[in-house]
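assembly run, all chains below
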Amino acid sequence: MNPLFHELFQKSRYLTNEINLTLKKHNLYASQWTVLYCIQKHGEMSLTQIWKYLNVEAPTITRTVYRLVELGWVDIRPGKDRREKIVHLSEKASQDFQTIKDSIFEFENRMVAGLTKEEEAIFIELLRKIK
Amino acid sequence: MNPLFHELFQKSRYLTNEINLTLKKHNLYASQWTVLYCIQKHGEMSLTQIWKYLNVEAPTITRTVYRLVELGWVDIRPGKDRREKIVHLSEKASQDFQTIKDSIFEFENRMVAGLTKEEEAIFIELLRKIK
DNA sequence: AAAATATATTTAGCTAAGTAAATATATTTC
DNA sequence: GAAATATATTTACTTAGCTAAATATATTTT
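ok done. output:
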């Protein structure tokens, strides 16, 4: 395999594992946090809005959101369109949000500490050229 | 989330999906191909050699290799150390290998067509700085 | 040689992605 | 307004990674 792809996949796996480790103290997994973050940013969202925004398939979001409901991080209410379900952060999630966001922020900064701001920009640019 | 991480995860997912699409005509999945490629390259390998080389956990390789046995891509024989299992390509896999390798090669080149060789090198270098 | 430790693999169970097809409700077309 | 089509969500099942703990065989220590 082209080393570029090999390295990219390895790093992606490494980073999700490290994020999971960081989130462990908050009893969250990476994908769960991604959904929480996305909902917090947009106020409240339907399932469809979430999966379209995150660019994953619908069943993935159904599953993750229902797990988040079970764990008490989000609540679901019906929308005006009776097909759709609107997801919003629970009281608990709203309270804990900033603390969790801070640990993730700290983690992310640690991971890119070896890159200058310019290199970060170049990296993203190159990443976008792979398609 | 830092856009760098967001883009990296998205691209990683996009690429595995595209590789799966490319491999579909050969009735293979990305991770199965990765294992086949690795075995072909090294002649034959024990399970431990495979997972250490690919940098994943042992149970992941156990599962993938046994699926490959079921599908007729690899065979397993005992090693001299009676704990270990040696995996090698089947007749079928050896025959089809070059064709599959060619489609993957074609796919990879298409994906990096937007980058110069120099940019590829820079990309890998930056990727390695994230840690 | 027996006990302790190490290594190779497996089992069980979790998150996380995917596809294909089913179900329920809305919207559009005839 | 009924039929056809579209949209939102769910269900069932697959690959693909992970951790923790079990099992079997080797190696080292005592």
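Strands of chain A lie at 45-46, 74-78, 85-89.

Residues 23 and 29 of chain A are 6 Å apart (CA to CA).

not gonna interpret more than that til we talk
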